[in-house]
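Form 7-S
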Amino acid sequence: MNRLGLESSPYLRQHAENPVDWYPWGEEALRKARAEDKPIFLSIGYSACHWCHVMAHESFENPRVARYLNDHFVSIKVDREERPDLDALYMRAVQILSGQGGWPLTAFLTPGLRPFYGGTYFPPEPGWGRPSFGQVLRGVLEAFKTRRSEVDASAGSVAEAVESSFNPSEEPVPPGSRAEEMALDAILSRMDPERGGFGEGPKFPQPPLLSFLLDAAARRREALPIERVMTTLRRMEAGGIRDQVGGGFHRYSVDGDWHVPHYEKMLYDNAQLASLYFKAFALTGETGFAAVAQEVLADLERTFSEPGGGFIAALDADSDGEEGRYYLWTRDEVIRVVGPEEGRLVADLFGLGEGPALEERTLHRRLAWDQACGWTGEAPAAFRRRIGASLEALRRAREGRVPPGADTKVLTDWNALAAEAFLDGYAATGGPDLLARGLRLLDSIWARAWDGERLHHVWDGERARVPGLLADHAYLAAAEWKAFALTGTSRRFRRVEALLSRVERDFHHPETGRVYDVPLKGGDPALLMPVRDPDDGVLPSAVSVYGRVLWLWQRLTGSREARTLLDALVASEGGTLAARAGAAPLLAGLASDLASEPVEVVVSAPSLDGEARALLAAAWGASPPGALVVPIVGGEFSPEEAASLALFTGRQPSQSARAFVCRGGTCHLPVESPEEVARLLSGGR
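Output:
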């Protein structure tokens, strides 16, 4: 067993029996590289990564390869989910060096931690236009030993390019809603109008981009973005990217039709997709969207729950030695479980063939429910219940299979996204169990990740580790703000205040106004440079999420300091918004909202009873994106506290629930009916 056997990361422990003399990232490994003047072989991956497992089996378990690494390199293994800052830094370097990125991430560094060569997966023999891993090792070592000055110069140039990419030139922010318009055009141009999603394949869901499209469409009153998102959601829901038996979603589809997924499941995907389907339900009223979201959350509860009340990070793609085996079915297997008649119906509906190919064994619904019910002459709802019973039987049957491996670490940022999904479900459906679960999850995060002074990124089952990153603070602040907006509880408000205070202290650059993804003080001293990334992709940019929470906070409190921080943050991203707004749509949406007339609603009530909740629901339903809707509830804030918060001044609870609606700085007299709230928000007088 090597040093990784002492680590808590499931991914690192997977490599504990490798003959490679692995080190975790830390001073011991870095000191050895400096003392022996050896190049560093840095391998970054995650436990659910299929090709990480492939390269480990082909190369890291090979004694000859291990001997070469041990003799000539200092080998460091990193779990990207524990250290997303290291992953972001060296991924950017490899993208600059090779023009591509992905996992496993393979990087070679000087003893001073500057990258000079890299790539992703390298096979054991040359192929697919790639050199073998052995050829790479020999070539890197030869260059390091015989052309050291060239290597050092190249490494310095790469480091400068990486730093420049994290700190683009400052330019004016595009005026008004121009940044949002540019982002909208850029994203729509990449979408597949027939099959949904982005590009030809592989296709990743990218919920932040889809959510932006819905908000931008609402602000601009455009139908096309909504149509594109609805097409995407319907095709994904029916496709093989969704675990049709369990209800959750796999990480991505390898094809453009959403038929064959890469079978790992990630907490962050499912949390965000649940929120997105609830959002689609709130927008359209289509109950099918709410049903999908509920089924996603049910799948999380069954397969991702951990004893402390949170959710684990991921489930592997592989089980029983085969990619996707846990999720694959043959026609005969389905018939054996649910019987001949139902089995043939399910197999036909979900596109099961006779062969061994993944596309013939992955369930993907071929028709919409209202079309498929014509096969039996049943009403759509009855047909759906019938098929649902068969799928439930399949789910119970597959519990007897070898399950996929689980990455059991609990991540603060991803759990905050999950908490927000439950809260979004409550806001969309009114289900009290969803509210209670979301609040319990938030409390679980604080109980384990917060030590009274600092937030941590990882709970490993015994202790909190890794100083919290911007995403941990931003995502948790966003979820707590939503909890405050739904409950009016002052404890939630104070948690947001604590998180924003620490972001200002640790992540803001005092001179440039930029916000970084890592602490500028108190973080990892070995990190080559501070990392920051305003781009949205499979996860929302922490910079944008933080900026939006800061904006909501500033409007409620009237804090001039918060507004100064917010203006500096947006101004510092002018270069990004001017040059490539489509890469940072959430930031573009925030800039657009800042240039629009503000909409604020305060529901003042002695308690959050039925009347107060009805007023809040009316405000949520009629408010545009970016609106601030909050309750002030009797007993939560003292008169002095309420008077110190700009939006609560003069709106202390009285004997009945009232709503105060303000648009563009003009406030109406309080109203007491949901209909009046909706009328005022729609522009009525």
